[in-house]
Write a structure and sequence with these properties.
Blueprint (H helix, E strand, L loop, with lengths): L1 H10 L6 H22 L16 E3 L2 E3 L1
Antiparallel strand pairs: 1-2
């Protein structure tokens, strides 16, 4: 998966380090797990939206 992420970013002219690729891969897998959970919800429960905001606060610490 990491190679496909790297290829897509290179096509867009975005350079990332190997560490950033590891983080992106981890975030992608986490989002896929959230998506699986949402797909199993009943329609009445589907009024909650999930957004991803890079940075912010992670475990009580500010992330840049």
């Amino acid at each position: 998966m990491r190679e496909s992420i790297k290829m897509v970013l290179q096509e867009k002219g975005i350079k990332v380090s190997e560490w950033e690729l590891v983080l992106l891969e981890h975030q992608w897998k986490a989002l896929q797990q959230l998506k699986k959970g949402i797909e199993t919800l009943k329609l009445n429960d589907a009024d909650i939206g999930i957004t991803h905001h890079p940075g912010g606060v992670y475990r009580g610490k500010a992330v840049k």
